[in-house]
# Entry
Amino acid sequence: MEGIWYKETPPGRWFIIKIPPGETLGARLVEFARAEGVTQAAIVSGIGSVKDIRFRGIKTGAKVPITIPRIHRHDVEGPLELLGLTGNIFPNERGEIDCHLHITGGLSSGEVIGGHLYEAAVFATCEIVLVEFRAEGIERYLSKSGGVPTVYIRQE
Amino acid sequence: MEGIWYKETPPGRWFIIKIPPGETLGARLVEFARAEGVTQAAIVSGIGSVKDIRFRGIKTGAKVPITIPRIHRHDVEGPLELLGLTGNIFPNERGEIDCHLHITGGLSSGEVIGGHLYEAAVFATCEIVLVEFRAEGIERYLSKSGGVPTVYIRQE
Amino acid sequence: MEGIWYKETPPGRWFIIKIPPGETLGARLVEFARAEGVTQAAIVSGIGSVKDIRFRGIKTGAKVPITIPRIHRHDVEGPLELLGLTGNIFPNERGEIDCHLHITGGLSSGEVIGGHLYEAAVFATCEIVLVEFRAEGIERYLSKSGGVPTVYIRQE
# Structure
């Protein structure tokens, strides 16, 4: 089909995950995935609170590809209520587990901030539900046009 | 049960979907659903980046039904990090596939904006996980009291 | 594994839920769970609109444990587009159904607010997809270090 790629794939294992206070969210998720052999997955739910959040936004008016001068890095001490943790795991071009996460967090004022997550530490708790996939022909590699690692789906 | 309607339904097929740069998000999802015969579904995960986002908020203090004078349309060039794509697919009163989407996106400043999505274009990538349902007795039609197309669940 | 607890668990029943205008979101979800005997679950998707939203943020610079003086309560009349409803259900230390929800909502201006949800009423509609779990050895109790009820996973 033009303009869209997709693959039907039954879900694999489901995991309920708890990351305790002080631990880093992204790094621990990657360690978990490595230990369990999870190479493809999506985050179904993520709730808790976070601190020391490093993330990026894309500069207004920027064009693709996304490059360093076209992004804006943020470093927020927080703590923030973790309102949304969206993301997926797919192997990168070296076959390594690659965890792509976007975060939304609530400030004391009730305002919400967020972006592409570099890393965050857990504040009081972080509770994640994750579903595994084992699809053939899906990988992530650098998109020359987009400038960022991107999922590619081989269609039969 | 009073004050809540629900239906137990086993999940059907799962799809991993990639919409490439420049394509419109909502229109492509509807085309996908039509091609695969997906009439009921929920979005489990949506990550990537978007541009040219058109969405609405409801005016503060407005009452139901939601009418044109009670909403506020926004047109944001972006690009935005796609932080959340929430939504479901159910057939409307004409039996057509109807895709209801809400979006949250991160600005360069780290602030987050969003609302009921009219349409957005993909910036660098858009990666979606979707789960299908095949429940009996669920449809979407215009709620006279609410003013918007709404899911109705027939309970036995 | 150090720094992370997790449990593999197959999903149980799936539910499509509709909460109609004027009903309270959290209270109705708990009633539903009680009626259906759902003691463990995650929200997969939540879309619609809400009003009279009461939620909290954590004060900037606060340390754990989370205590009353360290949080900031918000009371927003709205209505808001419901952009994200994240959460899980696990039994608390008294064996009761405990529903932990975080909310993000879109203002008329397009700005997004949110936090740990106390309660909200449905405005035009609220459509939720929920997946049940039946894992052994998962419960929620007050974390002394965190100050809030937290999921604990017993690992074999």
User: Anything to note?
Assistant: The longest strand of chain B covers residues 112-133.
